[in-house]
Here is the input.
Amino acid sequence: MSASNRALIVIDVQNDFCPGGALAVAGGDEVVAPINAMMPDFDCVVLTQDWHPADHSSFAVNQPGHAPFEMIEMPYGPQVLWPAHCVQGSDGAAFHAGLATDPAQLVIRKGFRSAVDSYSAFFENDHDTATGLQGYLRERGAAEVTLVGLALDFCVAYSALDAAKLGLRVTVIESACRAIDLDGSLARARADMQAAGVTLV
Here is the structure.
């Protein structure tokens, strides 16, 4: 497989998901160096960026009577309520300062629609509203994707599952990911990815 057929998709390596952030993933900043080291091995590098309006429906503060990490039902299905994070234009939404952004040819911003959350790099959580990444990869001739970043059990896993459904060959490099592990979410995500044919390295 030539490098031009392979894409590296770097998921949400943003300040709010790193230590000290509003939705910090333990060891989140530890993924920066290995991701930077991988970038030269790929002709196609894509970064994703959570980019929420302050009134986003997935923020617990916008759901009176509910607390962060509670599960509620949205029109598109179950939704975890999160602490407000990655608000558009905020320092928390910025990429980690150590992340090499120059090698990226595309930045996909997701979660900017108030009424629907967006974990996957390919589709919002309604599983219908596309981000445009599929078309970009097709135009680039990329049939194989490697996923890294934050968080393994949410945005990385959702992206991997969608990529597999779209017929792409998918690898997740776990050493360049970190997980939230909310009520067993990591074990479920790993099992779901393996069942979908995703290669976990």
